[in-house]
Amino acid sequence: MLCHARLRGDYAKVPRMNRTKVTASPLATMSLLLLLLGAAETAGAKPWWLRGVESNETDFLPPDVAFRVGARADGEVLKVRWVIADGYYLYRQKIEVKAESPDLQVFAPQLPHGVTKTDPYFGTQEIYTQQVEVGVPFTRLDAGAHPIQIKVTYQGCAEAGLCYPPITKVVFPDAGFKPSAPSVSAHPWEGMAILAGVFAFLLAGLVLRKGRKLDIPA
User: Fold this and answer.
1) Which residue(s) pair with 81 in the sheet?
2) For residue 162, what are the β-bridge partners?
3) Cβ distance 181 to 89 under 8 Å?
4) HSE value, Cβ hemisphere, 13 Å, CA-based, for 169
5) Residue 91 in contact with residue 156, Cβ under 8 Å?
6) Which domains does the chain have, with CATH numbers?
7) Which residue has the higher pLDDT, 47 or 67?
8) What was the pLDDT predicted at 43?
9) How confident is residue 49, by pLDDT bands cut at 50, 70 and 90?
10) Is residue 5 very low, low, confident or very high in pLDDT (cuts 50, 70, 90)?
11) Which of 17, 43, 127, 195 is buried deepest, with most CB atoms within 10 A?
């Protein structure tokens, strides 16, 4: 009986739990809204190849789609090939190929003749359309210890009136010819719709939690 009395006495000394209502503060909700609006504005910003151009980004392809580049090793010559989208062209004189991996030496690329065009940006130029393959003689001093890596630089335009900035990529010819995969950017409205859905979900969660009560120790 004494033990039971002590247990009852100890139990009686346990502090009672206060019931406090948990609600989201207006400041936290406003901060969340401003964060989502800022992310939506970033999603709608122009990509780098359209900065300073008064054009809709949907009018032009991303550079990786307009100009797909890949390479393969054929004996002592690297074959670098571009697949060019319809309505776009590359400048012959803007193509450069340099060694990127250690102990690799590349020589002047063997550029085929292009089509002469009077260009609004650079005057009379030779250009490539559809596709072009460039031979680049090379030699290796590492006995195959490193994978071949080259750095290619090129520049092109769209017939509709957009000239892309110079593009530089590192290409691995050992992997064979694999044109860079097109990476079409999502439309800004899609990003804003996703952010709006996330905001609606969080807001619904805050409303549901408003009526909930949690036991918090005094």
Assistant:
1) 70, 133
2) 158
3) no
4) 21
5) yes
6) 15-44+187-216 (no CATH), 53-175 (2.60.40.1250)
7) 67
8) 44
9) low
10) very low
11) 127
3-state secondary structure of 100: coil
**Of the candidates 124, 90, 213, 8, the residue with the CA atom closest to the CA atom of residue 81:** 90
The pLDDT assigned to 156 comes to: 95
Who contacts 132 (Cβ-Cβ below 8 Å, separation ≥6)?
A: 81, 82, 84, 90, 112, 114
Location of structure tokens 């300073």: 52
Residue type, 71: A
Cβ neighbours for 215, distance < 8 A, ≥ 6 positions apart:
17, 18, 19
Decide if 134 contacts 110 (C-beta within 8 A).
yes
Nearest to 133 by CA among 173, 79, 72: 79
Strands 150-154 and 96-99: antiparallel
